User: What shape does this take?
Amino acid sequence: MTESSTGTVRVRMAPSPTGSPHVGLARTALYNWAFARHAALQGADATFVFRIEDTDKERNTQESYDSLFEVMAWLGLSWDEGPDVGGPYAPYRQSERSDIYSDVLARLREGGWSYDCYCTTDEVAARRLESGSKTMGYDGFCRELTDAQVEAFRAEGRAPVVRFRMPEGEISFDDLVRGTVTFHSDHVPDFALARANGDPLYTLVAPVDDAMMKITHVLRGEDLLSSTPRQIALYDALKAIGVAETTPRFGHLPYVMGEGNKKLSKRDPEAHLLAYRDDGFLPEGLLNYLALLGWSIAADRDVFSLDEMVAAFEIADVNPNPARFDLKKAEAINAAHMRLLSSEEMTERVTPYLQRAGILSDPVTAEQADLLVRAMPLVGERINKLTEAVDMLGFLFHDEVGYDEADVAKILDPTGVEVVDAARAALEGVSTWGHEEIESALREALIDGLGLKPRVAFGPVRVAVTGRRISPPLFESLELLGREKSLARLGSVPR
Assistant: This one.
């Protein structure tokens, strides 16, 4: 029996709307989504929850909030409960759950699970220095304050933070990815639950939300592993005060590494999710690659669909070792998915990029649509990202050719211009403007007549007509462009 095969499975993705969504977030969302969808296939009552952790008022932005929904929609990772679709445990934004957190804080205080701490950071550091202690974190100074000490602190105008009383002893749990993990409470000091102004902290709100939303499995990044013993201890308290029913299972996903053996951070260019969309990645191509950052469908297979991933995904198969982000491999995986698209699908996918570049109008005209449909089979096997269609097809829709100066100097030199003139003269005599007739005329004039090699013969013609050294097949391009435009471009090359 697998971890997700029976019963109720509730997993969540709980991003913070700070900064730009990054690839680590997408990988975590993908694994949670696949875990839930696989569980559903196995007969479980499975739910994928999308929750917004926006307690960091200073760093939260509306732009980041909107980007989270935008990127998740682009990736196609749909959720069953969330801020936009609702659900039985709404609201799904932490900023709208303040009354819940205040109530839980009061109940924890009444049960003796928390206490007020008046210490400053400098005081804690000074006591650590004086004692020679190497243990980081809070030293428990305010755990058992007398009434007189409390009055003295208040007289100084100090506002307390709320700290949780960590129990003594060891805290062990069975990590779904790493096996048994054990922490000793000596290395897990009492932690803050709320700021001095009363605002709740992540250390409180995440476990409370998971408890009240009945999350059964928490799959998250390895960077949060050290906080797990605190959450498990807090769950015991939440169960004692009637807020939680059970403690969820935890699984900590491997780091995604960037250059120089460093964890990929939000500041790294390759971490920005929406940049991949703008660069022309297919969502299924990017998700396929992200899935490989810690998991594989088979030892000899890298390319697969989301449906195939869902059918095969087991959290126990995730490798706990760090995974390195390789942009070249991501592009290769994406190229493989591009080859799986039909010509009709490719046309639909590239249209927004052609519109954004000003090549197609919005809406697309009937004439443009017809030309695009006829041109797409020529480039479908030649482009690895959707954006590459812009350079490949732009010449068909522009009235004038934009030349690269280097191409003009190297290819449309005086010799190249002579080749272009010969090509134009040959094509003027073509009666039926089809790619076979065009090819025959050019080969006869340039290869048989002038004795040129194909690359030397057709290179200048290609640049003259398309403005590029790399284009769709030349003869078919001339056919699509039409007699009038083709002859006009061949007659107007830079001289």
Remarks:
- The mean pLDDT is 94.
- The first helix runs from residue 23 to 41.
- The CA atoms of residues 148 and 234 lie 29 Å apart.
